[in-house]
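pasting for ref
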Amino acid sequence: MQNAIVETNFNFPRQKDVYKGKVRDVYNIDDDYLVMVVSDRISAFDVVLPEGIPFKGQVLNQIAARFLDATSDIVPNWKVATPDPMVTVGHFCEPFKVEMVIRGYLTGHAWREYKSGKRELCGNPLPEGMVENQKFEKPLITPTTKADVGHDEDISREEILKQGLVSEEDYTLLEKYTMALFQRGTEMAAEKGLILVDTKYEFGKKDGKIYLIDEIHTPDSSRYFYADGYEERLKKGEAQRQLSKEFVRQWLIENGFQGKEGQQVPDMSERYISEVSERYIELFEKIIGESFQKANAEDVAGRIEKNVTGYLNDLLK
């Protein structure tokens, strides 16, 4: 089995602290830079699965890096460099307390709300008579709060301003950037025969300036449909062909796991782990339109430590 990184314990130059998320380990360098290591951990139903997926971290990091570069003319972003295939080094920013979710189609959470009878989502009115996966007349911004504990919650523009989570001046800019990023992502997806269905963006501030932070347009933060056959499936009421990690959720459901109390995560055989790894590589090749080049996986932790330490020593001179 290839070497998958599920845990990191680095000690980089001028490191102050480290935040460990579900998938990413983020090292704070002197409150000036962040080193984001995208691990090979995989989560579903808010649970981190026990086995890592070889090359998953590289896939997500390289997709995000590519899209950050391709959108830097729209909004400045936090990325400074990618010294390792699984690592991005960027500016330390103070994150806004909301995530900017944008939806082009009535699917997922939006569809579940609609199906339950709601005709408004985060202050956006929804017309009667829509069907699952139907395209909105124009994309809807449906922000969520960023919860420290528990799940993020839907919130409207009015409520964000009322609670003082973001100033009106900043929020107007966040909306403008979100629309422009989604438009660029939609165009880039269309070139690859894909539909960017919905996604989320996170923003932060450094020295009074707004930056796009974290990852963008990856299959972990976005939903893609295949454009071919979309209209036909929509008319027939059939499920759309998705390009996301939905296949992992489906496998877990089929094996009796949905993250509920008392349920056991099913055993992940080496063969299944290898299949998931290949699916992630396929996601990369479909979204980016290039062959995936596997990084040397003999000693991944050693490689990361050497690459990042060397880069930081030069950067912090």
